[in-house]
Specification:
about 250 residues; alpha/beta; Rossmann fold; 6-stranded mixed beta sheet; 9 helices; binds adenosine-5'-triphosphate; binds magnesium ion
Length: about 250
């Protein structure tokens, strides 16, 4: 389980995350929604041990994030960013996917099998010998996801990974989410993706303004409240009405 205890994070002089507490159970998928600048990425980076909080604690499976060495932390928690280019380290796709596994010194045959299986799952065969830095934005995103997924960390954070993908590429990721043994934290502005969550969290101005089990959203009597919330979020994000209609169908 991951436990966030009253964390506050400043970037520059601004408080970006303000006294946030949250539990993320193993086996539970979370969805975080929120307008631009709400602090979603900042929260994700701190969970993955990439930036430090100014106060409060983050505990992953009974141990503070700061007490993990980088290798064991990456086996616990993986993160895929909005902009995947920043995390490529090799010059061909197959090596890129295998990179994390070779770092933790798995034997070659096991690495080979894992990499082949993820290439198959995400349907990446046509790009395995290419240089990741020369791929299109959407293709890069798929490779970044494959390389994190190959490590099969207990927890994976997807930070708006589908924003630049076409329907076909998005569906490859959705299939992965359908059959993923890791616990997922999906940060998204796309309401359609709420259905992969067990719990939905709304982050606004660095604070959790709303939190609910998806199951509860399905109970008819709370729909009007949800409608107001989602309408507000929608207005702030200037998102399209198509997504809004989809979420009303889902809840
Ligand atoms: N390195 C930084 N230095 C200064 N301010 C930062 C830094 N990174 C983020 N911020 C500020 O922190 C706030 C939250 O940013 P963050 O990227 O966490 O938001 P977000 O919810 O992920 O937004 P988006 O939906 O646009 O991705 C913003 O006001 C942003 O300008
Ligand atoms: Mg962000």
């Amino acid at each position: 389980m991951i436990k966030i205890n009253s964390i506050t994070i400043k970037r520059g002089k601004k408080i970006v995350i303000h006294d946030v507490s949250l539990s993320w159970h193993k086996g539970e998928n979370l969805v975080i929604l929120g307008p631009n600048g709400a602090g979603k990425t900042t929260l994700a980076l701190s969970l993955a041990g990439m930036i430090e909080q100014d106060s409060g604690h983050i505990i992953i499976d009974s141990k503070s994030v700061s007490d993990y060495d980088l290798t064991s932390l990456r086996q616990k928690i993986g993160i895929v960013f909005q902009d995947p280019e920043t995390q490529f380290v090799t010059t061909d796709v197959k090596r890129e996917i295998a990179f994390g596994l070779s770092n933790i010194k798995q034997d070659r045959e096991k690495i080979h099998n894992t990499v082949d299986s993820i290439i198959d799952k995400l349907d990446l065969k046509e790009m395995i010998n290419r240089d990741p830095s020369e791929l299109s934005g959407g293709e890069k995103q798929l490779v970044a996801i494959a390389s994190i997924y190959a490590m099969s960390p207990d927890y994976i954070i997807f930070d708006e990974v589908t924003s630049f993908l076409d329907r076909k590429s998005r569906e490859r990721i959705y299939r992965l989410w359908d059959n993923c043994s890791s616990s997922l934290l999906i940060i998204t502005q796309n309401f359609e993706e709420i259905k992969w969550g067990d719990r939905v969290i709304l982050l606004e101005n660095g604070e959790i303004s709303f939190e609910s089990e998806i199951q509860e959203l399905m109970e008819k009597d709370i729909i009007p409240t949800q409608k107001t919330l989602f309408e507000k979020l929608l207005k702030e994000n200037k998102d399209d009405i198509y997504n809004f209609e989809r979420i009303m169908e889902i809840i």
